[in-house]
């Protein structure tokens, strides 16, 4: 256990040294990555900052981890963490459209209080045919139009299944082509795009104006698997005129008999090492 925590300390020290020498980069973390250790919100946010992050994407709105928007923002501010986005979703209800939109108003009000730029839908029931998928796209347009009134951009986050084919169309491509760029953008998860058999760089070139945010993810620690060309991804993303990204790490699964304490230590070690990798990567601005 001492060895694990010493590795974390080294990673954090690397981040601090690089930041002090070369200026601060904006390195974001999706808080889902440490969701299993958010019982003490303030203490965990401090760990996020100590691990090398200064931007966060949270879960939910107007409440985050049981705290109202203003209180959660105050905690993040005290740790030097800028809230850029959230992951949240509200399902369609044709029988109560106004009620659904009122719920979205509460979401956007909360995000406005937190100073966020984006609201990202992390997944959705996309239907089983193009007619149903088109209805989802229309719904996103409607919600995105409302979000714009609050100064919030509505986005959609992919997993690998959005690259399946529905009635001859790649689902994710159909969604891009049937949502209004004025109201809806896309947050590309580069790991799930790769797992879906697609090339993130090719999509960044194909849809330069629609992919406005990235989820940076690997098997666990960013850059360790060697399966994803992060340098090419970042270069194209910056060339497209965008800069906002967050790291997301799935909860580590350890060997049988591993204690929760050991698993939490590996989780924090992973997010710290990912931050250090990105801070030291010359291709990350």
Characterization of the model:
By secondary structure, the chain is of the alpha/beta class. It has a single domain, classed as Divalent-metal-dependent TIM barrel enzymes (TIM Barrel, Alpha-Beta Barrel), CATH 3.20.20.150. It contains 10 helices and 12 strands. Strand 11, helix 9 and strand 12 form a beta-alpha-beta unit. The N terminus is likely disordered.
Question: What is the percent of helical residues?
Answer: 40-55%
Overall pLDDT score: 93
Major sheet size, sense and barrel closure: 8 strands, parallel, barrel
Q: Which regions contain 5 or more consecutive residues with pLDDT less than 50?
A: 1-22
Structure classification: alpha/beta
CATH superfamily: Divalent-metal-dependent TIM barrel enzymes
Number of domains: 1
Side by side, the strands of the main sheet go: 1-2-5-6-7-10-11-12
CATH topology: TIM Barrel
Summarize the helix and strand pattern as letters.
Answer: HEHEEEHEHEHEEEHEHHEHEH
Instruction: Please count the helical segments.
Output: 10
Supply Rg: 19 Å
CATH architecture: Alpha-Beta Barrel
Quantity of strands, as a count? 12
Task: Produce a short descriptive summary.
The chain is α/β, with parallel strands linked by helices.
Key descriptive features of the protein:
alpha/beta, TIM Barrel, eight-stranded parallel barrel, 16% strand, disordered N terminus
């Amino acid at each position: 256990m001492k060895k694990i925590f010493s590795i974390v300390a080294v990673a954090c020290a690397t981040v601090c040294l690089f930041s002090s020498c070369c200026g601060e980069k904006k390195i974001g973390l999706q808080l889902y990555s440490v969701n299993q250790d958010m019982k003490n919100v303030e203490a965990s946010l401090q760990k996020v900052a100590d691990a090398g992050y200064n931007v966060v994407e949270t879960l939910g709105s107007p409440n985050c981890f049981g705290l109202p928007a203003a209180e959660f923002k105050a905690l993040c501010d005290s740790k030097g963490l800028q809230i850029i986005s959230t992951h949240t979703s509200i399902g369609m209800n044709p029988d109560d459209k106004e009620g659904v939109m009122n719920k979205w108003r509460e979401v956007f009000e909360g995000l406005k209080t937190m100073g966020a730029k984006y609201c990202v839908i992390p997944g959705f029931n996309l239907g089983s045919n193009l007619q149903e998928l088109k209805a989802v796209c229309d719904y996103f347009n409607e919600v995105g139009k409302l979000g714009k009134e609050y100064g919030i951009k509505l986005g959609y986050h992919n997993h690998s299944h959005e690259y399946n084919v529905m009635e001859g169309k790649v689902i994710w491509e159909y969604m891009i082509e049937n949502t209004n760029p004025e109201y809806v953008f896309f947050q590309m998860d580069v790991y799930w795009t790769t797992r879906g058999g697609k090339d993130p760089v090719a999509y960044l070139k194909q849809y330069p104006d629609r992919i406005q945010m990235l989820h940076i993810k690997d098997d666990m620690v960013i850059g360790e698997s060697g399966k994803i060309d992060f340098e090419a991804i970042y270069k194209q993303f910056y060339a497209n005129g965008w800069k906002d990204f967050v790291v997301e790490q799935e909860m580590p699964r350890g060997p049988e008999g591993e204690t929760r304490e050991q698993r939490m230590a590996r989780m924090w070690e992973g997010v710290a090492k990912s931050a250090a990798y990105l801070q030291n990567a010359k291709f990350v601005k």
